[in-house]
Amino acid sequence: MTTTTIARAWMVQRADGMVLGFTDHDAGLKFDGIQFRPDHGMSARALVQATGLSVDNSEAEGALSDDAITEKDVLAGRWDGAVVKMWEVDWTNVSARRLVFAGSLGEIVRSQGAFRAELRGLSEPLNAARGRVFHPRCSARLGDGRCRLSLTNETFMIEASIADIRDGHILRFAGFPAYEAGWFERGSLLVLTGKAEGLRGTIKNDTAFSNGVREIELWQGLGIAPVAGDRVRVTAGCDKRAVTCRQKFNNFMNFRGFPHLPSEDWIMAPQAGR
């Protein structure tokens, strides 16, 4: 291959199987059954690889176009962790190509109709903590394979229509079932209909008023704000304490913490007989 005919091509595959291809060449390329489009979508900075397997100072960026990567999909997290591969390819003979990067998308930042995404190499999972953490509070995520609690019944999950929304993150409901105040704090809210469909937020405050009025405040807005009439699914929250696991969820047999560990104060205090 000669340097005058080298182009870069990259493939992005979401967790749901959707595949997009882009190239910095001025014409489309095709190989491995993927059409690499030149007109819009994404570009990538040069890769700087450190000693070992880590990838430093690497980003992908592009426009939030309606037919490629949309702002709604980015906000909904559909591109989080997407598989990324990048090739250097001879555009006169696409069989002459070299894979220069394989990894995934990391943190995605939006700004003025565009996005910037961190590129993470194959070694990124090695940075994750391994093994169990010995802590009085539970290390499981509510409803996951270690928690084993089913969240499908109405005790822990409810669907409702938004009656009113203020400041993009305070939602009010009318005719809400009678849950005790704070039941959904630390829980999640998923938008089921409307322009914000698929977006998810974490619940900061859950306030119950008389006559079935409920106010749920999110920690931050959803990017695309839902509107009155949109349907949402609200899931109960867990503060990871043993007493909550026992009394609220009746799931203490699956509690993944160590509630009887002595505190740091006990360890530091002088002990009789020492």
TrEMBL record:
Protein name: Bacteriophage phiJL001 Gp84 C-terminal domain-containing protein
NCBIfam families hit by this protein: phg_TIGR02218 (TIGR02218)
Domain Bacteriophage phiJL001 Gp84 C-terminal: 182-265
Organism, scientific name: Paracoccus acridae
